[in-house]
Amino acid sequence: MKKIIIAIDGFSSCGKSTMAKDLAKEIGYIYIDSGAMYRAVTLYCIEHQLFDEKGQVKEEELKARMNDIHISFRLNPETQRPMTYLNGMNVEDRIRTMEVSSHVSPVAALGFVREALVRLQQEMGKEKGIVMDGRDIGTAVFPQAELKIFVTASPEIRAQRRYDELKAKGQEASFDDILYNVKERDRIDQTREISPLRQAEDAILLDNSHLTIQEQKEWLKTQFLKATHA
Ligand SMILES: Nc1ncnc2c1ncn2[C@@H]1O[C@H](COP(=O)(O)OP(=O)(O)OP(=O)(O)O)[C@@H](O)[C@H]1O
Ligand SMILES: Nc1ccn([C@@H]2O[C@H](COP(=O)(O)O)[C@@H](O)[C@H]2O)c(=O)n1
């Protein structure tokens, strides 16, 4: 069967990567979490003191160091899940902290950061057979994608899911902080100048507020089958 590109965009924490990962595994496609790449750049900024005392990113310094930032993915041999590597180090857990979540959207709004990461994402998808999730995959990275999905759910439901996830991992979490972060990231992502978060005209909308993980997985598989048998 001819391989296609599947772009899954949408709001923060609505289940994009859960759906994308499951589908990719089932159909034997590569899965790329583009948000992990923006998170890795943000972690680099935190670890190299590239935020000033007001929490603003030191743009010129980051720009000068972009060539020193190397991001890649490797499969965890036990779980078969992709892990994010930054300059050869596994940073999968460190990029998921609230500290990174609360700094990532301003970093992702910088044109030179987007240029570098979009180039890398397009390179990863040039052979097709890829499921990529993010904010601008269907609009900017792969506008030619054969299947585009745009996922949404209410902010409260999304925050609750993230809260439950952190609690299950034994991490300290405040529902209010998570809700604030989810809404604030959505605001910055939707209002930035370059490639703002929006639904592509040809994307299929999914509100999964009241769907289980299994139901949304089946829904996505149906969309894939429709797109590949059309
Ligand atoms: N339909 C669902 N019902 C309940 N929980 C869900 C559902 N879909 C995903 N989840 C859970 O919600 C949390 C967020 O999901 P996920 O990480 O896939 O979202 P995301 O959109 O990729 O987030 P981000 O934008 O932050 O990368 C996870 O704990 C996941 O297990
Ligand atoms: N294609 C993308 C993907 C992500 N971002 C930015 O990164 C943040 C973190 O992404 P998650 O998917 O891990 O939540 C997100 O809030 C965006 O600011 C992006 O700009 N483009």
Automatic annotation (TrEMBL):
InterPro entries: Cytidylate_kin, Cytidylate_kinase_dom, P-loop_NTPase. It is found in: Cytoplasm. Transmembrane segments: none annotated. It catalyses: dCMP + ATP = dCDP + ADP; CMP + ATP = CDP + ADP. Keywords: ATP-binding, Cytoplasm, Kinase, Nucleotide-binding, Transferase. It comes from the Bacteria. It is an enzyme of class 2 (transferase). Residues 6-215 form the Cytidylate kinase domain. Its EC number is 2.7.4.25. ATP binds at residues 10-18. One of its GO terms (molecular function) is kinase activity. Pfam families: Cytidylate_kin. Belongs to the cytidylate kinase family. Type 1 subfamily. This is Cytidylate kinase. It comes from Phocaeicola acetigenes. The gene is cmk.
